[in-house]
Amino acid sequence: MTLAQHFAAYSQWRAQISGVLGEFAEWLVENELTDAQTDRRIVQLLEKLREDRLHVAFVAEFSRGKSELINAIFFAGYGNRILPSTAGRTTMCPTELMFDKAKAPSIELLPIESRESNASISEYKRFAAEWQIVPIDTSSAEAMQDALRHVSDVIRVDRATAENLGFAVGDGESAVFRVDADGAVEIPRWRHAVINFPHPLLEQGLVILDTPGLNAIGTEPELTLSLLPNAHAVLFILAADAGVTQSDLTVWREHIGTMGGRKKGRIVVLNKIDSLWDELKSAAEIDAEIARQVDTCAWTLNLPEDQIFPVSAQKALVAKINDDGELLRRSRLAELEHALSDQLIPAKQEIVRDNTDAEFSDCYQRTHSLLESRLAGLREQVTELTELRGKNKGVVEYMMGKVRVEKEEFEAGLQRYYAVRSVLSQLTNNLFGHLGVDALGLLSSSTREAMVHATFSTTLSEAMMHFFDAARGNLSRSQGEVTEIMTMMEAIYKKFAVEHGLKLGAPIGFSLMRYEREIDRLDHWCSTHINTMFQLLTHEKGQLTQRFFGEVAVQVRKVFERANRDAGSWLKAIMAPMEIQFREHQIQLKRRLESIKRIHQASDTLEERITELQHVEEKLVLQLQALGRIGQGFNDVLRQTVSGEGLRSAA
Fold first, then answer.
1. Superkingdom, according to UniProt (predicted)?
2. Which of 41, 262, 390, 467 is the most buried (most CB within 10 A)?
């Protein structure tokens, strides 16, 4: 099964889940079982599935054949190279290939001068006017090539301008950016490129990140701070004839191999094995030489050998275009494509499955508990009315008094519920007092002031370290508030379940651990790229301060913003079951009292009311059965796995 077929099966699975969720939402509306919280969660879940993306990043030093590999894997069907691929550097800026059907095929280019501000690439993506748009004519491979060559554009500026834009200018021959004989420095024209292209895989949600030579990666920190860590797979390309060079090893250790210690989804491609094809050697000797290079790379990078794939991207592209099966076999590209299919897509499916299952299960369980509560209340009412058959008026009055007492007890319980809401509101304020962006804003201001007034490099370093320690402290205190809220809600759930027979289950949990790990990752990046003795001694205080807040602090803020949104959603979710059950119980008590009142006033309505309630009971039983079928159908689709044969039901 090809990567395209594998991805198509994954997209089909995702569409099936969306279909079941849509049916669930319609069924809730038809049966008048919906509420604002459940509606919002289902809509958000459908939106996540619709916008689901699979991010694959291609990383390499220049001249490793990275763009050619992308051409061979994804664009050979066009009968030519689509991405520019020539000797030397071709991709001069980080380039995202994706498809948004709301936009025409085009290239969006962010000018390099945008670096003069402190705004990140993600912030610039909100302002379309800041980007230059180049249309893409998809009817012609040559026209597409011409348009896509823009990612290779360069400009010549003086040394001061280059350094002001963040480029490390050197004087030696090995320097990536150096002053030429005319006193100018050649730098990329664009800071970032987004190619909107109607390729079948891109249409299904694949996003390809093509990076410039990473020995220049420090010039765009967002690449290593956000884009690469969030990629589901990173393909690190080496040259087979050179193996792991010192610069390759630096890139691997600083930007790829150390990202949270992850090895899953990290694939090394040993490209250009055709350089080892020697007509004076036998096939066995050539294979042995390639195997030695794989073994050496595995040892150097501390990776298992099955995560290193020797290929010839150039020969694979030629083979696909010319339909040369033997050359394609020798290129070994199929093994890499199978690895992408077999490792990447199931891993992504597992993430989507877990997230979707948790959200759906909570909505499903809430609806199931509501129906069970209604059914239990209704059956209690039928039992009460059945017991009134043939009884005198005094007995009816007694039953009416009994229900009134229950109603009064429940109303007293409501007062306790409102008290719980008040306590929860106070705990929530405490939570957002630590977790909120206002607290982080105060921390950022005090850190900036400390860095501006620092007189020694150690003071500057301590200010950065204090920033992360304080951020972690805020998260730790926030987790304490979360734990206190959970403890209180667990006790309240149990109390009201016992006192009023509410079917509440257990409150949904929440953890800030993922955000703490993200802060740790950003702290590690800062301590290896900004807060180092070399940086402190070789850069001005103002420049380091600007880098810290323009590159690191902005990412920390994003972490806290995500934590705020998720905590807010959790607080709504934790209160919703109680609110729904209280409202439902209140309605049931009111109906019971009204039924007995009517029977007290006219005894001939007793049988009619019992019959009426029995019909409602039958309807509730049917609703529970229908809900069970929806839940089973959802689980059947969710447990399907994407395999070499397409979608396969779990055993």
1. Bacteria
2. 467
Please return the burial class of 615, using the count of CB atoms within 10 Å of its CB with bins 0-12, 13-18 and 19+. Answer: exposed
Find out whether 642 and 10 touch, Cβ atoms under 8 Å: yes
Dump pLDDT digits (tens) for 374-431: 888 788 778 877 776 656 556 666 666 766 766 666 666 667 777 777 888 888 888 9
Is residue 150 within 8 A of residue 135, CB to CB? The reply is no
Question: 53-153+189-331 sits in which CATH class?
Answer: alpha beta
Closest to 234 measured CA to CA, from 215, 216, 207:
207
Q: Where are the beta strands (DSSP E) in 165-256?
A: 169-170, 177-178, 184-188, 190-196, 206-210, 233-239
Q: Is the dihedral of CA 188, 98, 103, 46 positive or negative?
A: negative
In the chain, what are the domain boundaries? 1-52+347-387+605-651, 53-153+189-331, 408-603
Residue 230 near residue 57 (C-beta atoms within 8 A): no
In terms of Cα–Cα distance, which of 514, 529, 537, 539 is closest to 222?
Answer: 529
Q: Please give the single-letter amino acid code of residue 593.
A: L
Contact 192/186 with Cβ under 8 angstroms? no
pLDDT classification of 41: cutoffs 50, 70, 90: confident
Q: Where are the alpha helices (DSSP H) in 178-323?
A: 200-203, 221-222, 246-251, 283-301, 313-322
Q: How many helices (H) and strands (E) does the chain have?
A: 22, 15
Q: How does strand 106-111 pair with strand 169-170? A: unpaired
Which of helix, strand or coil describes residue 482? helix
* Whole-angstrom distance, CA of residue 608 vs CA of residue 611: 5
Taking every pair of Cα atoms in the chain, the longest distance, rounded to a whole number of angstroms, is: 112
What are the backbone angles phi and psi of residue 463, rounded to the nearest 5°?
-65, -40
The span from the CA of 90 to the CA of 88, in Å, is: 6
Handedness of CA 357, 360, 364, 365 (dihedral sign): positive
DSSP 255-293: IITTSTT--TTEEEEEE-GGGG--TTS-HHHHHHHHHHH
DSSP per residue, 488-512: HHHHHHHHHHHHH------PPP---
- Do 346 and 642 touch, CB atoms closer than 8 A? yes
Q: What is the pTM of this model?
A: 0.75
